[in-house]
Amino acid sequence: MSAKYDNLLDYTLSELTELVNEYGEKSFRAKQLYEWLHKKLASEYDELTNLSKDFRKKLAEEHVIRPMQIHDKLVSKKDGTVKYIMKTSSGSIIESVAMQYSYGMSVCISSQAGCRMGCSFCASTLLGLEKSLSAAEMLSQIYIIQKDMGRRVDNIVIMGIGEPFDNYEQVIKFLRMITDENGLNISQRNITVSTCGLVDKMYDFANEHLQVTLAVSLHAPNDEIRRKIMPVANRYSMKEIKDACIYFTKTTGRRVTFEYTLISGVNDSIECAKQLADYVKDMLCHINLIPVNEVKERDYERASTDAIVAFQKYLEKNRINGTIRKGMGSDIEAACGQLRRQYSI
Ligand code: SAH
């Protein structure tokens, strides 16, 4: 028999049912197996105690159940944020981050090893794209962190390395499996997917009818500035992004989050705030202002505190929701835009 996937975690419940039947086992075994893998988070065949030794042996001949391993771990002295450096079974390095808040634990996962979007302020894109991650490799980041931290993952943000919509199918599969009631059953509303604005995929995403939050990395108030810092802006205009966001809200009833990284002298003037306010004024949205985090290969400067506060005040005055994102874990290079696929510590 040739296996559909190398990793058992890649099988959805219905695919697992087919597999179990092919091995001559009853269908209910699939549910047991799925729960072992996705609810009890087993990572060794020995743990699957209510399945026969013979069945386990057959499964193990064709599948592994550990797509990722912890390669190293760094803990922030500032805020307790933990950065996990993980290695895929094929040897790629990626990073994931666990952030602890009073209301629960939030985990930021990577969707690709590297990135090919080329945003000029981001470390993740420096070495290009090595590979897209499978659903199993994304699930595994959550499972490993939940086990290692000894606490439930409450929120997930797909804001680590990579462009999730450049790996669309696997990201959707991941979302369906992580929210499955037979697995960790994480609420769709507690998950955010962030894109640099691949407009075609934004429409597809709206049509999935998920209650997941869509975040869009805007970072500029007009196409001219956006093209200078984000190559993807040459493919799609801000008008096209806006239309896709309006469609998303119409289809799902959910507001969109815009991410706006404040870079000194590039996009932090009051004129920029004014143009941004005009752009979003008739939309159901929230703006996340992110003072740019340091990436040593780049020489972008953080906007001054005065400029950040003035920017936010301007939005507030125009009744636009805007919050300044706290840079968690910046002392261990775990903050937005600091994750990379090369491990050099
Ligand atoms: N590719 C997706 C997912 C990455 S999410 C996207 O572009 O949305 C990571 C967020 O951090 C994005 O909004 C990204 O633009 C932002 N970011 C990248 N580099 C940054 C930096 N140096 N400082 C602050 N934010 C940064």
Outline type: elongated
Enumerate how many helices there are, as a single number.
10
Give the number of DSSP strands: 12
| Rg over CA atoms | 21 Å
Whole-number mean pLDDT = 94
> How much helix, percentage-wise, in residues?
25-40%
Quote the distance from N terminus to C terminus: 43 Å
The profile of the biggest β sheet is: 10 strands, mixed
Give the ligands present.
Answer: S-adenosyl-L-homocysteine
SS-based structural class?
alpha/beta
Give an account of the 3D structure:
The chain starts with 12 loop residues before the first helix and ends in a 21-residue tail after the last strand. The longest helix has 15 residues, at 135-149. By secondary structure, the chain is α/β, with parallel strands linked by helices. The chain contains ten helices and twelve strands. It has helices at residues 13-22, 28-38, 53-62, 135-149, 168-178, 199-207, 223-229, 238-252, 270-280, 305-317, and strands at 68-75, 82-88, 93-101, 104-108, 112-114, 129-132, 153-158, 191-195, 213-217, 256-262, 285-291, 322-324. 43% of the residues are buried. The strands form two sheets. Strands 1-2-3-4-7-8-9-10-11-12 form a ten-stranded mixed beta sheet. The protein binds S-adenosyl-L-homocysteine.
